[in-house]
Amino acid sequence: MRHLLSVLIGFFVLSSQAAIPDDYGPVVVEAPFSLRERVFDLMPAIESSRKTGKPLFIYLGATDCPPCLQYKRFLATHRSELKDAFSEFVVVDIRTWLRGPSMYLKIGDKRLTFQQFKTLVGDTSKTLIFPSFWILSPEVKQLKQLPSGVTDFLNVSQHLEMLKIPVQ
Fold first, then answer.
1. Shortest CA distance to 150 belongs to which of 24, 61, 88?
2. pLDDT digit string (tens) for 96-140?
3. Is 157 exposed, middle or buried (0-12, 13-18, 19+ CB in 10 A)?
4. How far is the C-alpha of 167 from the C-alpha of 154, rounded, in Å?
């Protein structure tokens, strides 16, 4: 029992470490506790996107992912340069960890694997890498294909370029 309690306490302490900083106003999406699966409900963020007309910037990070922690530090360090660009989006912060039960995204009455989600939105990348990013319309269609990982996004100018949406 004592071991389980320390694991749970550790999990809740870690869960805030790889997050998008609060200054960016993220819609935080976490899965309810389950030993069998992790289901992330995107509907509150999608509804906010539809109501405001703003596109979704979806970030999938993990508490035990060193590049995700690096991305969080980058966002915190450069908030003054990036905050205005992020204000054009409904920022979605999917918080999880690398190992564990299968992950699903819930959109309406659909429960999708990440591969099914990527197919639905039009993401052509072959694998799911942490961190992952998507820029989606309020209709949940990809507006711009983004690479996964943080190598391309750890300087301000590249990050601002990433956040530019092509004119449709």
1. 61
2. 999 889 999 999 999 999 999 999 999 998 888 899 999 999 999
3. exposed
4. 25
Task: State which amino acid sits at residue 80.
Answer: S
| Dist. CA 131–CA 119, nearest whole Å | 18
Q: What is the pLDDT of residues 51-91, one digit of tens each?
A: 999 999 999 999 999 999 999 999 999 999 999 999 999 99
Looking at the chain, the number of H-run helices and the number of E-run strands are: 6, 8
Residue with tokens 């052509």: 124
Q: Which tokens is 107 given? A: 């959109």
Is the model's pTM score more than 0.85? yes
Ramachandran angles phi, psi of 140, nearest 5°: 65, 45
Q: Where are the beta strands (DSSP E) in the chain?
A: 27-30, 37-41, 56-62, 90-96, 102-107, 110-112, 132-136, 142-144
What's the distance, CA 155 to chain centroid?
A: 19
Residue 4, both tokens = 């389980």
